[in-house]
Specification:
Elements lengths: L1 H16 L12 H10 L10 H12 L5 E7 L2 E8 L8 E6 L18 E3 L2 E3 L7 H17 L6 E6 L10 H7 L1 H4 L3 E12 L2 E10 L1 E10 L3 E2 L8 H13 L9 H11 L6 H6 L6 H6 L3 H6 L1 H7 L2 E9 L5 E2 L2 E10 L5 H11 L5 E9 L2 E2 L5 H13 L3 E8 L5 H5 L4 E10 L13 E3 L2 H17 L1
Helix pairs in contact: 2-4, 4-16, 14-16
């Protein structure tokens, strides 16, 4: 009995000497987390995303979450973390990028890497693209960790280098650390909600157009500018550009654009609703390519979703006004809808340039990529959005630009993209431009949507 009493007293003394457990850490308000991320300048080039990755690794560690930072090059950090589920459901990856495009500070009302809140808006480089979504994904990940009992793995991957092609980010992770980021579904950027024309539109990016950057090279005779020659390289190049851009490529049907128009048509009055539902049927398709061509072209986003596009972006020739150059070079940014390949596009370009001494070659190419939108993941995303906004109109969408989703789609993984905030069209002006901003109040909506998506997919 005496020995038991000593054992009890010794144990009590030991307990008194142990530090008392600290109270559970509470997540930062999402606005404050976005601000801290904006303050870390990850302009690409040069990137230096490791500073942001290290900050988020330490932030996650305060909740008992193990995350690792994988460097693809000095200073190019990629954060990866995984919450293990029971395996009863597929794994979901929350994907985002930590780099931002550079900002010319002199053009901004306030310093781009010193976040400021004015009149209900958060200003700063990356506020929209995409440190707001990164913060929302991190908060959703922490919340899932605290709730526990996941039926599928939840993965977080925050990458470097998206703004410059992804070589040091998503591509690096897939090529070198595939098992760490393997998942069945991916949630990423690629679109954003818009309060437009009296509708709350939430276009979920399910596909991306392909890239076919093309260089045209015209040959001719050099000489003195005072004595014109018939084979002028500059004139040949201008003729080639005129042939290629005189008429926009025809409207082309995809399942995604057809469903997009069908859903929007349900919120339009006649005859607009009829035209949207039957846009790809003759004779309305012909009218769209002729009579209504300018009207469609004026809506840049819709126009890009309905047709392949090619835009001259670079012209180079000569070095002195009175010297005729022997060569002129032009470059075209072409974007292709699903169902077309860069090689098909190049063959068509060469055919249209027959008879001209102009060569065409692909500078950079990526095939179009797409995920099916008739999936449990799309329906879970749609349900979560509608719960957060009873006026929501959720649409499948083809984005004209590329994101890191393409690397995962190439592996056969279903990837969707949406920054779940509702913005006015004027709010998009700062995307890759000056005075980038988001409405502060929309962060709460984003939190609700991401939390609900995770619950629907993994509980």
């Amino acid at each position: 009995m005496k020995a038991l009493r000593h054992l009890f007293l010794d144990g009590l003394a030991l307990l008194l000497l142990l530090p008392s457990p600290s109270p559970a850490a509470e997540p930062l308000p999402t606005l404050e987390l976005v601000k801290k991320l904006i303050e870390i300048d990850t302009s690409n080039p040069p990137g230096k995303e490791k500073a942001a990755a290290d900050f988020l690794r330490d932030y996650l560690a305060s909740f008992g979450i193990d995350a690792e930072v994988l460097e693809s090059a000095p200073g190019r950090g990629n954060l990866v973390a995984r919450l293990r589920g029971s395996g009863e459901k597929p794994a979901l990856l929350l994907l985002g990028h930590l780099d931002v495009v550079p900002a010319e500070a002199g053009d901004w009302q306030s310093p781009p890497f010193r976040p400021a809140v004015r009149e209900g808006y958060l200003y700063g480089r990356g506020a929209l693209d995409m440190k707001s979504l990164v913060a929302l994904e991190v908060q959703a990940f922490i919340q899932a960790h605290r709730e526990g009992k996941l039926k599928g793995d939840l993965v977080l991957a925050l990458t470097a280098d998206e703004e410059a092609g992804g070589k040091f980010g998503a591509q690096f992770l897939i090529d070198r650390h595939w098992e760490k980021v393997r998942a069945d579904f991916v949630l990423n950027e690629g679109s954003v909600g818009q309060d437009r024309d009296g509708m709350h539109l939430y276009p979920i990016q399910v596909a991306e157009k392909g890239v076919a950057w093309t260089r045209l090279k015209a040959k001719g005779s050099s000489g003195h500018g005072s004595m014109p020659a018939q084979d002028n390289a500059v004139a040949f190049l201008l003729t080639a550009m005129e042939r290629l851009t005189a008429k926009a490529p025809p409207i082309r049907k995809t399942e995604i654009s057809a469903e997009f128009l069908r859903r929007v048509a349900g919120h339009q009055s006649f005859p607009r609703s009829f035209l949207m539902r039957h846009l790809f049927s003759p004779p309305i398709r012909w009218l769209a390519d002729t009579v209504f061509a300018d009207k469609i072209a004026s809506d840049k986003v819709l126009n890009a979703m309905l047709r392949d596009t090619l835009v001259p972006t670079v012209l180079q020739a000569g070095f002195k006004t009175n010297v005729i150059p022997s060569e002129a070079v032009g470059e075209i940014d072409a974007r292709l809808l699903p169902g077309r390949s860069p090689e098909d596009f190049l063959a068509e370009i060469r055919k249209r340039l027959e008879g001209l001494p102009v060569e065409a070659e692909l500078l950079q190419q990526n095939p179009p990529n797409a995920s099916p939108f008739d999936t449990p993941f799309f329906r879970a995303f749609e349900k979560a959005i509608r719960e957060a906004d009873d006026q929501a109109l959720v649409l499948p969408f083809i984005s004209p630009g590329a994101t890191d989703s393409r690397f995962f789609r190439e592996k056969g993984i279903v990837a969707y993209g949406l920054i779940p905030l509702l913005l006015k069209p004027s709010d998009l002006a700062g995307l890759h431009g000056k005075d980038e901003r988001i409405p502060v109040a929309e962060l709460e909506r984003g939190e609700k949507i991401l939390h609900r998506v995770v619950q629907e997919m993994l509980h």
